[in-house]
Amino acid sequence: MGKGNIAIDKSMIKTIVDGKIIIPLPKVLVGNRYYPMFSIFSPTQCDSCGSKLHVNSHHTRFIISRYGTISLNVTYWLCPTCKKHYHDRVIGVQGSANYSSEYYDTQINGNYSATDKKVCFLSNAVILRLIAALH
Predict the structure, then answer these.
(1) How many domains does the chain contain in total?
(2) What per-residue confidence (pLDDT) applies to 18?
(3) Contact indicator for 87, 96 with CB cutoff of 8 Å
(4) Is 86 part of any domain?
(5) What is the distance between the alpha carbons of residues 131 and 135, in angstroms, rounded to a whole number?
């Protein structure tokens, strides 16, 4: 065994604030700016008629990611003129999915290898078949 101090891996540093573990999230390029993953963008006006949107309802979305399950408060919007529906956009999540894009990429491309210590994920089709078999 070597002498002296051993360097600490600081790549996944976490901070504790008010008894909660805070993990810095990666930045995602949107347009020409970088935003933290899971940031929320709210629409302001209707794409069709240009009217100002009104709040329709509030919901909590649970998004599965490799950082754990993320709970986000999102708002659904309604155009008062043309009655078109809109929702908040979550950075790093496609549409109304309940998993983040980086989690989906890991799920599709991941395979089990004991030497690489990668996690094995089942494909969506296999998961649906397993759920159907349980019912």
Answers:
(1) 1
(2) 92
(3) yes
(4) yes
(5) 7
What's the chain's Rg over C-alpha atoms?
20
Low-confidence ranges of the chain (pLDDT < 70): 1-3, 11-12, 104, 106-135
Q: What are the structure tokens assigned to 49, written together? A: 């008629």
* Contact predicate 102/92, CB 8 Å: yes
Find where tokens 């309802």 sit. 57
Contact by Cβ (8 Å): 128, 122: no
Q: Model-level pTM greater than 0.70?
A: no
Q: How far apart are CA 23 and CA 90, in angstroms?
A: 18
Q: How far apart are CA 100 and CA 70, in angstroms?
A: 10
Distance CA 99, CA 130 (A): 19
Give the residue numbers spanning the domain of 23.
8-102
Q: Quickly list DSSP for 53-122.
A: PEEEEEEEEEEEETTEEEEEEEEEEE-TTT--EEEPEETT--TT-SB-HHHHHHHHH---BTTTTBPP--
